Amino acid sequence: MSVNESKPIPKLFAVLGVFLLVVAVSVLLSVPPASGYEIYIYTAYPWYFWVSIVGAIVAGQLVVLSSADNDDLGTFGAMLAIGSVVTLTLLPYVRGYPVYGRADVLTHLGMVHDIGEFGIAGNIYPPTHLLVGALSGATGLEPMTLINVLPVAFTVVFLGSMYLLVEAQFVDRKRAAFALPFVLLPVLGSSHVTAVPFVLSLLLTPFALYLLVSERRTAAVPVRAMLVLAVVGVVLFHPLTALFFLAALVVYAASERVLAADGPSPSPTNVASLTVVVFSAWYLSFVGILIRFRNVVTGLLSRGGGESQLQGTVDTVERTSAEMSDVLKIAVLEYGATGVFYGLATTFLAAVVLWWLMGRVQPRRFVAVFGATTVLFAGLSVVFLTNDLIVGFGRPLAFGKIFAAVLAGGAWYAVWQRTDRTAGRAAVAVALGALLVVVVLLSVASMFSSPLVAKTNQQVTQMELDGMEWTFENRNEELLIDEFGIDQYRFYDMRNGLETSSETVRRSDTNPPAHFNYTTYETLGRSYESDRYFVLTRLGRITYPAKFPGYRDQWQYTPADFDRLEYDSSVGQVYDNGEFDTYLVNGTRRSTDAERATTAGRVPRAQ
Asked: Which end of the chain is more exposed for a tag (fewer CB within 10 A), N or C?
């Protein structure tokens, strides 16, 4: 037994975990669905729901940790933890959200529409859209409904694959018992509830890694065939994941030159070649991909370039005079669990390298590969953070986190193994249990966007869908649309697909002037030369007070501004369903300027 020699203890953990999961599910079913937009999903349920679900995950981890000599009980603990995490991924569905994801998810729903109408031509990553479209055709359910369920299914695959990967990595049951708790939780945070191609490909990666490990051990033809299919799937889901996966294979190949072979390994070179061939054959035929690669290389080699994420964050903190306590809170809640994973994995790797140099151990190849890959992607994350590249630093950070999570328990096992006294091992076990509670809390806190991290809930409401549908159907298509609390082009993409466009549906510069320019003019219409629509949602009305309650001087719009809008003579409300308003703004700047010019005895100059 890895931690505890008392056999009743894992059974007690199992009973406690089942009880807590039953309590959590009971609360989940007793709370009615959301009636409108809720900026906090965390406040939709009472505190004891979150205590119960976190407790159920931790209980499952502790069952695994204390059951190295009992496969059945250990498997039960893993299923308990996985079931608890899956329960969390179902929250957007249980809350009754029509869609969870206010940005890319809506655009991808439009791409599902396009792929049914026009095929895969021009679609860079069609697997997600083909899958949703096929399931919709088979079940008769709307793609909007099915896309909420995809992250649930992929999370099951992710957690199951991580479990099998650890089992395959660590033949020693005690080593596996220490490693498994760190993969039986929502490792990737918000990725477990987001249905976009990169995230889904990320959730598939452990399955390909598991097959890679299994193929190397067994060289079985069925496993090799599944490995080929898994690699092709990961590559086609998203180009960036394909490049990351290829980088991990390069690390593996490099390890063969540094470490003595510990068995036949015919697959890595073949898998790397397959990855390159599939990637080149598919993605290099898209001009957009080539342009992005060119922009990345240009940005890295040139002295100038755009603003990096790091510089943008620093500028925002300085401009808003943000309190350091608020900055640290956001950093801990959003990246605290990631820091723990990377910290433990790199500590374990450093210890293994030190022991290797001292001649005490001969590192196993996959331990070395996973450790080196963790370090590689930590470094890549820094590069992405400090340079203006095509995506943010969170993507390489998340990919490396998969490898870090597998190794995170190694450091604890090393400490436990080198502690001889029972009291010392008990202290290690207690400290590990406390750390697991912290990691699970931080992972759960980062699953759903909320004002806790200066973000808003990704819920899309039925009222927003109805409001945008009415606006698009009844608008004067020659007029522009301003907005706050919603992205018009995302809803246009979802409704019409990407093959249809409108000159008056914009992607940027769509917000009205700060405070509706009431600090300068009596009416909003004085800010515009021509008429236009203004769309305002409940999210728009509450976003500043909810996200930045301590920074009122930084608010672009206040409750008083919204109240004044209702009495603005240049603004007429044309649609209202309780949480979604469409206004028609009468642009009066040109006419007012003309009146002033006439009064002054001169003709206004043409603009």
From this structure: C
